[in-house]
Specification:
alpha+beta; Arc Repressor Mutant, subunit A; Trna Endonuclease, Chain: A, domain 1; 2 domains; seven-stranded mixed β-sheet; two-stranded antiparallel sheet; 11 strands; elongated
Amino acid sequence: MVSVKRRILEALAVLRALEMPPAQLNDRTAISLLALLDLSREREWSAAQNPMLGIRAILDFARQKLARPYAENTRESFRKYSVKQMVVAGIVLHNPDKPGREPNSSDNCYQIEPHALALFRTFGREEWAPALAAYLAKRPTLAAQLAAGREAVKLPLKAADGADIKLSPGPHSKLILSIIRDFGPIFVPGGELVYVGATGKKWDFFNAELLASLGISVGEHGKMPDVILYSRRQKWLILVEAVTSSGPVDGIRHHELVQLFNNSQAGLVFVTAFPDKGEIFRRFVSAVAWETEVWCASDPTHLIHFNGTRFLGPYVKQGHTSA
């Protein structure tokens, strides 16, 4: 059995040999690597494993196997500054069991890439140096293959100006595609796509120039809705929240959006989009704010108006005329 300090130093030596950036040469990243290899103090590197773990399980490993009780609020640091960097380097795979899983899903998991696992199992042995050289020689090709695989599962979309948008797959992105392809043409005919912020990255598409022409300046940290459309004919900005896991345009969110777009020279229309009128709709519909709209992708030609007497009145039935 080796000491915790020695095990972490070994992991740091491996990360350094793989040319990881200095910002990742720390105990946090070393422990993340050890957890993903299930490499406790009792196990040799030749017996390294590659379980699929979430960030919570990595913190559990640190506490239980290495006596490092990291606080709960460090989870994001582990994910963003250690595990994510190993994913980018090609050492770790993100959601190998389901590449299309949404990034904000609680089922997100990580696993050591098979070629990297074979390399790690040689650490401390004579085979390490030649295995490392061979791995580094083919690493650019492997990284390119992994990157191509990640791109292949993205959902392509073209904006009106011809710009390419690629959304990470999953229910949230599919709903955003429905908003753009179905809701927009039906309820904002001739409208322009201003902004798309899906789960892959926050600013997937952003026509800042158009917003600026309407007197709106949004900083990088502005809490934008998922989709913004603009109708020049009506001079409306349609702000759409896509709901597949988080909440709708409730009273608090409505206030946030009003403040964010308070200088708008265009009228603001607030829309909450659901995939259908199923469980997610039933869970959140009671929280929807008044003076907003609800749209379901399953019934694309209809809106549900949370606007009181504004739309009260009889419908014209076939064979009848309204009074």
